[in-house]
Amino acid sequence: MIEFKHVFKKYSNEVLAANDFSVKIRQGEFVYVIGPSGAGKSTFIKMMYREEHPTSGEIIVNDYELQKIKSSEIPFLRRELGIVFQDFKLLPKLTIFENIAYALQVIEKDPETIATRVNYVLDLVGLKDRVNAFPDELSGGEQQRISIARAIANKPEVVIADEPTGNLDPDTAAGIMEILERINGEGTTVVMATHNSQIVDQYKHRVLEIEDGKIVRDQTEGGFFQDED
Amino acid sequence: MKISTFKRHVIESLKSLKRNGWMSVAALSAVTVTLLLVGILFSILMNVNKVASDVENDVQVRVLINRGTTNKQEAKLKQDLVKLHSVSKIKFSSKEQELKNVIGSYGKEFKLFGGDDNPLNDVFVVSAKKPEQTVKIAKEAKKMKHVYDAKYGGASAKKLFNIVDNIQRWGIAISLLLLFVAVFLISNTIRITILSRKNEIAIMRLVGATNGFIRWPFILEGAWTGLFGAIIPILVVDFGYVWLYGIISNSLASTGYRLLTPSVFLFQIDTLLILIGIVIGAIGSGISMRRFLRI
Known about the structure:
The complex is a heterodimer. In chain A, helix 3 (96-105) packs across helix 4 (111-124), helix 3 packs parallel to helix 5 and helix 5 runs parallel beside helix 6 (170-185). The longest helix of chain A has 16 residues, at 170-185. Chain A has helices spanning 41-48, 74-79, 96-105, 111-124, 140-152, 170-185, 197-202; strands spanning 2-10, 16-25, 30-34, 56-61, 64-65, 81-84, 158-162, 189-193, 206-211, 214-220, 223-224. By secondary structure, chain A is an alpha/beta fold. Chain B is α+β, with helices and mostly antiparallel strands. Chain B folds into two domains: 3-55 and 160-293, no CATH class; 60-152, Alpha-Beta Plaits. The two termini of chain B are 22 Å apart. At the A-B interface, helix 2 and helix 3 of A face helix 1 and helix 7 of B.
């Protein structure tokens, strides 16, 4: 579960990137975060994995109260999240296997479990045959699939994707969406920032629209989202 | 930390040395050059210290006994000298022995002064426990009965003590300075190699690696750099020292002074270079990456 309560974020250059964000995302939901460039989508996403710290307000992610956690607890928060970036952020000097294994090594899984899990997620994203390749030997779409494989390797409850299809052609983007849909189908919460309206139209889910640092629309498929609580 | 995790860190650190190619070579070269300087300077300093302390310990007070002093009086004088706290050893040298020494050093012409013509005195050769007590012993001995004079090389001994003091003081200062430069040089080179891996560290943090988990392979990599960087300096110092020891020992043979024996000394200096390399490499790495780990 992710919850923002009256969250404000003002950068040192006086830009107000979050102006009273209040929103709740339940376990198993798929939520798009849309809006023009510079609207505050990335700030919203980054605050979830504590890359950015709110100026005021409360953020709760999987029982972690982000405004209260210590620096030393941040790695443990991030282990419960799978994060996918527009620029993939793979370690260039490691093989595909090593890149995915890294996310499991940090939580001190034993080598056998790591090998099994890496093979499983590579199979899931359809790249089992590229296990020994290096990132720069793969296409953009393939790199993004590896990035997703790494994100889900330690079975996170939430996958946060910041423009995961941003650098990809429509067909490749559709392939990435299929994978995210499948992950969501298994009960994982997916929060995805995008400005690809085609995808939002094609794969219908809840939409949060941000403009000038404000959430201007919170809409489930077919109508505005109504909070049950 | 699990054993498998530590094993992973060790393997990862070695792989990383290889992956980072030229950067590793740059860091290794910095270590090599610095340790080479440290090794050579230490070898010189330790040997200067050794020879200096040999010379220092060689300084003795010669207490000249009045002519005509009886054996009994001489024994009493010896007792008085023994009572001085700073005296470690007293050796008696008769005037005949003294003359022999003079003849040995200056030539047969001095044989003329044999028998009753011997103008020399019987002598107590007094060694001090600590070289700097020599002057004090001489002064006190001079005041004693039946003592004609007490000589300790006077000004020249003082001068020698000053020189030895200076060599030791400057030697320590230069060594400390060099070690400081070494830490600075090595940590800076490692910092450059780490700077080029800033993104790598950022990604590690994003996937949930703790600072400790990120830091360990880097620290081990620094330690490897230090260890491997010590190889060339060790070889140069070892072979160079053995070669120079052969040459210098020959010319020092007549003086009775000796350089430090290679077998013992080289073991010490090699261990020292390896330890300095590993510790400085690891510390350099640790310091350099601190700022990348601040959240």
